[in-house]
Design brief:
This protein is mostly helical. It has helices at residues 3-41, 47-61, 64-76, 82-95, 98-109, 113-127, 135-157, 165-174, 179-196, 199-211, 217-238, 244-266, 268-280, 288-310, 314-324, 348-378, 386-412, 421-456, 463-487, 494-523, 529-560. Helix 2 (47-61) packs across helix 4 and helix 5 packs across helix 7 (135-157).
């Protein structure tokens, strides 16, 4: 095999392994994603609980990068605090070490290369099944097969130093500079992990190089240390457009991994010697499989000890990062999205959760807009705040238009063709919810415009009209408040729906009553026809808001109770 073909084949093995891991991870998330999200949501302030949750989820999905990006996304969506997320990612650092043990066992100890292809055949019927519930299991089987096939191919193709003397001499030179070589290979480990976005690929490379005697053990351990730092940059990149809490989470992850790098670099030679003696079992020189297990042992101990040293200092880590990333005032804060500023997250489920949180904030802004509209209704035309209040309502109307556009654009980028029925239902519901919320904003603005025209025509409401408008606005505000409360709940029950319908019935009944009274009041000369027209426009807009509110509640009820 020519050198170029050998290099391409080795890279192909790594690529196949990475792709298999991605397919497997996606399948697992489709099968157990809801349970994992429930576990993350149920995390309490207990840091050990958060730590072990991060450990087992990462061990299952076999991707620390996916776990850290997911955690940053949950913080960005307001589902986790920074303190909880720090403990979760400490656990993720430990959970990801399982991949090293899998590679050492299946690639060096048992070498089940010949079993990978039969597993592909076993996976195919599930992948092409007409039943959506079967497909994720096929993805898991297919992913495992490609993962194993990839890293075993890489291990089998890795040449010995005697087969490539020029390359061996060059690497030997790079390895002979003492601590200079250690720092160099830490940097190489960081770069490889950033480029491939996978800690498992760097671990595989370290194991293969030490097992085939390309690298001495301390140098291979330096690659592992660099790998741990490199994987944190995935979360940092993912958080660059997120809110301040998500950015603090990502940088906390980087901070405690840098601490782990520092203490392990100081003790790298003693640790390497102890590990060498342990895996050699007194024979003087370990076997290739034993050396691979040595890397797995070092990787696990490195991450576990770092977590053990820092688990009690989460508050201090949070405070330190807060000093470097302070909260800054943003004059255009209301015009910006809070939860979905960045791109789509690692899973459709998590991306939809971000959109749901953004929809809740959208509803809160509609609530503020209705409050402003109510204030505007009470202001005389010559009041100092009259024009300013109307300008704020205009601004909120633009905000609602932009929010609908941005959230819909975000939801449109989510691929719902490969997700569960519940996830697809949530997406459809969110499309409807944001459309109805934008209509609430339009209705509030319409009320303000009616008031503006009324005052321009020098039309005044009598006390009875103002009282009835106050009743109508009050009922509308209660319905909107109840809607926001329901949107924050994981699911809506029949009692919740009945209360929402009762509020809607109350608004409709008052609208009908006032409409009938309005004709008689005009005929009796209580107020002019023009005054009655403006009056009923406001009442009708409030009733429309009630319709939009119940539409939001129904949409959310349908998706939250989807089976």
């Amino acid at each position: 095999m020519t050198p170029l073909l050998l290099i391409l084949s080795l890279l192909g093995g790594i690529a196949l392994s990475l792709y298999g891991m991605k397919v497997m991870s996606q399948g697992i998330l489709k099968v157990a994603g809801s349970r994992m999200r429930a576990s993350l949501r149920s995390i309490s302030s207990n840091r050990l609980h958060s730590f072990w949750t991060g450990t087992w989820i990462t061990a299952i999905i076999q991707s620390s990068s996916a776990m850290t990006v997911m955690t940053v996304g949950l913080v960005n969506a307001g589902l986790l605090s920074v303190s909880q997320s720090i403990a979760i990612m400490m656990g993720a650092n430990v959970g990801t070490t399982l991949s090293a043990w899998i590679i050492a066992t299946l690639g060096f100890q048992w070498n089940i290369h010949s079993w990978a292809l039969p597993f592909v055949i076993l996976a195919l019927p599930f992948v092409f099944s007409n039943r959506p519930t079967f497909r994720p299991w096929g993805e898991i089987l297919m992913g495992v097969s490609l993962y194993v096939l990839g890293f075993t191919t890489f291990i089998d193709l890795m040449p010995s130093p005697s087969e490539q003397p020029a390359a061996a001499e060059f690497i030997a030179m790079l390895s002979g500079w003492g601590y200079g070589s250690i720092f160099l290979f830490v940097l190489i480990g960081i770069c490889i992990t950033i480029i491939l976005r996978s800690s498992a690929a760097t671990i595989l490379l370290a194991m293969a190089l030490v097992a085939t005697e390309w690298l001495i053990f301390p140098i291979a351990a330096a690659l592992v240390i660099g790998d741990n730092v490199g994987t944190t940059l995935t979360a940092v990149i993912a958080s660059r457009k997120a809110n301040i809490s998500a950015r603090r989470t990502a940088y906390s992850h980087l901070l405690f991994n840098l601490f782990g790098m520092l203490w392990s670099l100081v003790l790298i030679y003693p640790i390497s010697e102890v590990t060498w003696q342990f895996v050699s079992f007194g024979t003087g020189f370990p076997s290739p499989a034993a050396l691979a297990f040595g890397i797995a042992i070092f990787h696990t101990c490195f991450n576990f000890v770092t977590a053990l040293l820092l688990i009690g200092f989460i508050s201090q880590i949070k405070a330190l990062v807060a000093r470097f990333l302070p909260i800054t005032d943003d004059d255009d804060e209301e015009l910006s999205l809070h939860f979905i500023q960045g791109g789509l997250l690692s899973t459709a489920e998590l991306s939809i959760e971000e959109a749901r949180k953004e929809a809740i904030l959208f509803a809160v802004r509609c609530q503020r807009m209705l409050q402003l509209t109510d204030d505007f209704l009470r202001l005389p035309a010559d009041h100092a705040q009259y024009s300013h209040t109307f300008s704020r309502i205009e601004k909120y109307e633009k905000i609602t238009d932009r929010l609908e556009l941005e959230i819909v654009r975000y939801l449109s980028r989510i691929d719902t063709s490969t997700v569960s029925g519940h996830t697809a239902a949530r997406t459809r519901a969110l499309f409807r919810i944001v459309d109805e919320l934008e209509s609430i904003g339009d209705a509030c603005y319409k009320i303000a415009c009616v008031v503006l025209r009324k005052n321009e025509h020098h039309v005044a409401f009598i006390h009875m009209q103002q009282q009835n408008i106050d009743k109508m606005v009050s009922l509308t505000r209660q319905a909107l408040d109840q809607m926001i409360t329901l949107l924050k709940k994981p699911e809506i029950n029949e009692a919740d729906m009945q209360r929402a319908y009762n509020m809607e019935d109350g608004i409709n009944a008052l609208r009908t009553q006032l409409r009938e009274l309005n004709i008689g009041n005009i005929q009796n000369g209580d107020y002019s026809y023009q005054s009655g027209m403006f009056y009923m426009d406001i009442v009708g807009s409030c009733e429309k808001i009630g319709d939009f509110v119940i539409n939001v509640v129904e949409a959310y009820s349908e998706q939250s109770n989807y089976v």
